[in-house]
Write a structure and sequence with these properties.
The chain is of the alpha+beta class and 116 residues long. It has one domain: Gcn5-related N-acetyltransferase (GNAT) (Aminopeptidase, 3-Layer(aba) Sandwich), CATH 3.40.630. 29% of the residues lie in helices and 43% in strands. The chain contains three helices and six strands, in the order E-E-E-H-E-H-E-E-H. Strands 1-2-3 form a three-stranded antiparallel β-sheet, with helices on one face. The chain has a three-stranded antiparallel β-sheet with strand order 4-6-5.
């Protein structure tokens, strides 16, 4: 897990992480509501993927987003993620099962998007 902070003043904005899972690795991020819509999550996710693909040598990374949070899906799509299926998944914050969309980011697709 890594802290997402604002460069200018070191203010805590959220968290991002890369965790092992059955399919390889899954990236997850959380950003405090006052910081939404300012590209902090996009920048942090891009840096995390760069680390995963370049420094760790991973070939793909999974990520997912809940149906009530389409902004996370837009961030993942902007970085080159492709839809990998949908399922009901438990969310402690939401207090039950919620529709969740799985995404998959591949090293080759990510690097081709970031090189452009």
């Amino acid at each position: 897990m890594f802290v997402i902070e604002r460069r200018a003043d070191g203010r805590f904005l959220g968290m991002i992480g890369l965790d092992p899972c059955r399919e390889g690795y899954e990236m997850g991020f959380w950003l405090g509501k006052p910081h939404w819509g300012q590209d902090y999550a996009s920048e942090a996710a891009g840096r995390m993927l760069h680390y995963a693909f370049i420094h760790l040598g991973l070939e793909s990374v999974g990520a997912s987003w809940f149906i009530d949070n389409p902004a996370s899906g837009q961030i993942l799509a902007k970085l080159g993620a492709r839809h990998a299926g949908s399922t009901m998944r438990f969310s402690r914050a939401r207090g039950g099962e919620v529709l969740c969309h799985a995404m998959r980011l591949t090293r080759s697709h990510f690097l081709s998007k970031t090189a452009a």
